[in-house]
Amino acid sequence: MSFRPYHLPLSLLVLLPFVSGHGYVAQVAIDGKDYYGNLPNADPVPSIVRQINDVSPVKGADNPYLNCGQDAQLASLVANANPGSQMQFWWKGGDGSDWPHNIGPIMTYMAQCVGTTCDKYNSTTAEWFKIEETGLEPGDTVWYQQNIMNGGPSNITLPPTLAPGQYLVRHEIIALHLANEMGGAEFYPSCTQVNIQGDQSGVAPASAEVTFPGGYSDDDPGIYDPTIFDTPVQYTFPGPPVVSFAASGSNTSSPTSSSPGSTSAGTPASSPTSSSSGSGSGSGSKCRLGVGQATFALQARRPQSVSRVMRGWWESMMSSS
Fold this sequence. Notes:
Elements: H1 10-13, E1 23-30, E2 33-36, E3 79-81, E4 86-93, E5 106-112, E6 128-134, H2 145-149, E7 154-157, E8 165-175, E9 186-196, E10 209-210, E11 264-265, H3 308-320
Parallel strand pairs: 2-11, 3-9
Antiparallel strand pairs: 1-2, 1-4, 4-7, 5-6, 5-8, 6-10, 8-9
């Protein structure tokens, strides 16, 4: 993938909400064995994580990419796991820095790969059930997503009585820093392919399953929230309730969690040099590049999501290049 550098004044860089303001799942660990994802839109290496083609968020609850992410492609590997297995997800910003957002929930769904193996399964009609949802830390002012921004993984426990079979694990962050406007929520879904072993019998009832798109609406209280910056935060999770056989309190998103064990599968994809980033937690904060990213070379194409302030400037730059 080729990049054309644009050296921009710092006054413009702090307004441009593209590269570091978005991201993807770069690494997954299952019971201490780590697997590497692929850089979006790069030449893929074998992985259990379905590769997306763009770090931009999925926008709109009826977007077909709400399923597994931006134009997500089948992954070539399926990893073994067990009921009760511990999974960790490392999210990265689009430039290889830490995850840039800190407002909004983390949720995880699963769907069985019906009639085939997950490396061949078309998930557009998948029936998803929720196995965990994580929102605010005690005190209702700080989101657990802040710990991912600090460089920690998101930790989940697979349901301890989950029936065997091949499943997609849909791990999702919803960034709500623009959710005080209708359609402002940013969805970041990611799908990982696993093969659940054992002889348990836990299955989700049809009443607990949803499709994506279809599981959310743009006006759901947990997606459109004009009071998102009021504290203490009063938050309602979107989507179905967590299934009854899920593990309790599985996601701590702890910044102090240890790194995955020494075993690994797949080859880590190279990423650009890491630099600091952030999305402030104050009212009206937008996706922004941090000062430390002022020299980062921006990809020379129109991003899928830019602010209204910058849209005209970006289009004029593209037309003159």
